[in-house]
Every structure is written in structure tokens, then in C-alpha cells.
Design brief:
membrane, magnesium, mainly alpha, 2 domains, transmembrane helix
Amino acid sequence: MQNKNVYLYVPNIIGYIRIILALIAFIVCKKNLAVFTLFYGTSQLLDALDGWTARKFNQTSCFGQILDQITDRLSTCILYLLNGSVYDNYIILIGLLMIADIGGHYIHAASCAIAGNKTHKKIENGNKLLKLYYEKPSVMVACIIAYESFWVSSYILKITDVNHIFHIICNYTLKISFPLAAFKAITNISQGIYGARSLVEIDHMKMKNKNGH
């Protein structure tokens, strides 16, 4: 039976758990690297579960969609902050990537909501880059995993000794994940541009309707 209390939908409960795990990971990141990796990794793995449970139990909701996006951005921002704290020379670049990430996702999601679209994953108007990213689940999942892996590895490489097992693993992970992570960063910018254009088109349509054209 479908739970009528949206706050207690299974996918939303998973979202709450993801936030708690990510925050704990952030708190212990400088004290216990193993716990940080475990908790943050678990939070990200649960990201795939909330969408599945929403469909399985017919518990999709507007609240759940926004919660999922906020949780994703919160998690990634933790990685931006951690990397910014140890890479002084790259803090401006990291900040710009964070702005592109948050801004791009927000503008795209807002434009879809204002346009009345049921999902932000359906791309119109022939944007091939975003179509590839959003409409090919395997591509999106691979890019997200690579992006998160890149930033986690980057942070761990900076704070561990070269002989540490985590350092050795992350050295390889960083190199392997970089191509898809770079692609993901480009999509963040692309969806911001796409969202802005969509909003302007909506404004133009409103002006035409107002003027009776």
C-alpha cells in the first residue's frame, strides 16, 4: 500500500539517510579516512536505490525529486570544500567548478519545472551533449561515479603518504576517472546554458502572448 505521508516515502527516507551519512563523512574526514570513505561511498551508492524504490513502490513525488537533487549537490559540495582546503593553488578553479555545478543544475531544474516538464532528464531542442548524458542511463551513472571518484581520490592523495594503500589506489583511480569526470564538468556548464536559453524562450513566449502575437 502506498504511504500517503510523503515525508515517509521509502525513497525520501533513503534521502535522509544519504544526507546523514554524507555529513558524518564530512565531520570525520580529517580524523578517520576509512570511515570517511565508507560513509561517503555508502551515501553515493544509495543514490541509485532511491530512484529504484520510487518506481517500485510508486512513491515518486515533487518533494522527493528536489530532495534527491539537494542531496546530490550537498554531497559534491563536501568534496569541493575538502579539496579546496588542501589545494590552495587551485581554490579558484575548484570554486568555479562548484558554481558551475550548483548553478547549472539549478537553472536546468528550474527551467524544466517552470516549463511544466515532469522530469529534468528529458532533453528537447537537440542538445546532443545533454541528450547523451541524461537519456543514456549508463552514461550518466558512469559519469557520476567517475566525478565523485575523481574528487575523493584527489583529496585522499593530498592527505596521505605515498606509501599508504589508499594513496596508491587513488593514484590509479584519479587517472582512470579523469576523462569522464571532465565530461561531467562540461555537462554542468552545458545544462546551465541550456536552462538559461529555455527560460528566455519561455519569457519570449509570454511576451508574445501578452502582446497578442
